[in-house]
């Protein structure tokens, strides 16, 4: 089964974010960064396998540009 980034991401409102202490904010950042790294890794493996199999891959399908705005 596939999983979308939106399914594993946690989004806080500004009010919710303000209620977190610094250790909770740091944990959130660490978890989200790890999630992004894992997704980027999976995508690169998929791309590599497509190249090995000589499948045509559109550059637009690559979405390893993750931003975490905190």
From TrEMBL:
InterPro entries: KRAB (IPR001909), KRAB_dom_sf (IPR036051), Krueppel_C2H2_ZnF (IPR050169). It holds the Pfam family KRAB. Residues 3-70 form the KRAB domain. Transmembrane segments: none annotated. Gene3D superfamilies: 6.10.140.140. Coiled coil: none annotated. GO terms for biological process: regulation of DNA-templated transcription. It comes from the Eukaryota. PROSITE patterns: KRAB. PANTHER family: GASTRULA ZINC FINGER PROTEIN XLCGF57.1-LIKE-RELATED (PTHR23232:SF142), KRAB DOMAIN C2H2 ZINC FINGER (PTHR23232). This is Zinc finger protein 669. The lineage of its organism: Eukaryota, Metazoa, Chordata, Craniata, Vertebrata.
